[in-house]
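Data card: per-record layout.
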Amino acid sequence: MLGRLREPHDRIRAMQHNILTLEAQLEELNAREADFGEAVVANPDDLFEYLDGEFRKAIGEQELPWYAGRARLDPTTYLPLVDGQSFGDLGGGVKCAVAVAYSVALISYAINFGPCDLPMLLVIDSPRKNVGNNAEDRALAHRIYRNFLTQIGAREGLVRPFQVILADNDLPEDIAKQIKVINFDYPNEPFIPGIDDPHGEDDDEIEQQHHDSAD
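The structure for this 215-residue chain is written out next.
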């Protein structure tokens, strides 16, 4: 009997809790809407012009091999076109360099004109591994790093916070001096503690021999 009497009160208490939760969520959404305001509605022509200009500038500073000077974004897809080739048709180090330049253009817009749907986080995974190991390849990889740091560093003083993570097993020494380096290595400081090296010691020795022979 007592349980049946308490049941309506429990339901009311649960509904009150749900109402408070929904009110808090509504308040948060209203605050976010106020932050976005009318600035979210960007002029498509202005957006494209900015991204296209940033991409052209980044590509030009990388001095890509065989680059004829025709870099732009497709006005329909907003994807890169370099010397008439789409991103999917590019190969090797050129494709890597174009991907980095394009990513820098996107985060540049987010930093300068946010809030928007573009992330304020950029993660670049080992550009050098897609470039090669001869002298020309290493020079291209160095230009990719140099241009990347120059473009990002130019926006460091802006008020909108952003984060850039560059993952690489073999950073050029002068590049490493310009950034905060956190080392992860097996078995002392793995990226995820408690996880064994997925490559094993034999793979590490083979990789080291490969780098030694390339040098």
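Known properties of this structure: Residues 14 and 51 are 50 Å apart (CA to CA). The first strand starts at residue 71 and ends at 73.

See the next section for split statistics.
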